Amino acid sequence: xxxxxxxxxxxxxxxxxxxxxxxxxxxxxxxxxxxxxxxxxxxxxxxxxxxxxxxxxxxxxxxxxxxxxxxxxxxxxxxxxxxxxxxxxxxxxxxxxxxxxxxxxxxxxxxxxxxxxxxxxxxxxxxxxxxxxxxxxxxxxxxxxxxxxxxxxxxxxxxxxxxxxxxxxxxxxxxxxxxxxxxxxxxxxxx
Length: 191
Hints:
Blueprint: H1 33-58, E1 62-67, E2 74-79, H2 82-95, H3 111-151, H4 163-179, H5 182-190
Antiparallel strand pairs: 1-2
C-alpha cells in the first residue's frame, strides 16, 4: 500500500492571483496608460457583443464606430454593414437639410394637438385590447369546433376509422352499455 502524504499548508503550492478579477470600478478616466489600453480592448469586445445582441433580439440596424484612445485606429461593427448604415444616415441628413437641426426642432404642439395625440393613443390601446380579446375568442371557438368534431365519433363510418379509433369506439360503447340499467337492455331485447 502506498504511503499517504499528509496535506499541509507547506505541501500546497500557493500562487498569487495575477489579475484583479471582476469587480466594480469608479467610472472615471483611467490614468495608467497600459491599464487604459487593456480596459479599452476588453470593453470594446463587450460593446460589440451587446450591439450584436441588440441587432438580433430587436431586429434593428446598428452601426458602432470606436477610435482607439490615441485616435489612430478605428474599430467598427455594423448590422447589416457600417458602410450601408453610414450611407443611409448621410442620405437622410441631406434630405433633412431644409429642416432645423434635431437639437433645435420645435414641434409646436398646442394643447389641442396634445389632447388629440393622447386620444389617438387611447384609441390605439383600446383597439389593441379588442384585437387580443377577439384572438382569444377565436382560439376558444377553434377549440370548441375541434371538440365538436370528436363529440360525434359515433356518426363516423366504421370503414373510415383506423385501428386505434375502432378500439376507442368499442371501449366507449362498452362504457355506455355499462351505464344503461340491465332492465332497459332486457326490454330492448324483448322487442
